[in-house]
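Sample pair:
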Amino acid sequence: MVHFQGRGVRSPRGSRYKRYRDPRKCELGRLPSFTKLDKKRIKEIGTRGGHRKLRLLSEEYANIVDPKTNKYQKAKIKTILENPANRHFVRRNIMTKGSIIDTDIGKAKVTSRPGQDGIVNAVLIH
């Protein structure tokens, strides 16, 4: 489904604007991907300028860096503990940037944007 992000039909006063042109493709947006905790699923979407974005629809592993040793390792995600974007996302196991996840090696904070980067990167919290 497409979301229109251009000027609306009505002014702040409530009067109607005259339509002077059709909506442009650059004014269209998309629904958020809501990356869930499940088997890995990715969708590739086209963006402006012929570029591509990887929409991560679900993922079960995360790339975690330990800030003390500066070493990366891949860890299985157990559950989502906190999500500052929306408190109801925790119940639905939805990951966004800033989410606190529980993994095999401990708690970690998501630093990537899974819905736009196509990967889950996180920093270990001690």
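DSSP finds two helices and eleven strands in the chain.
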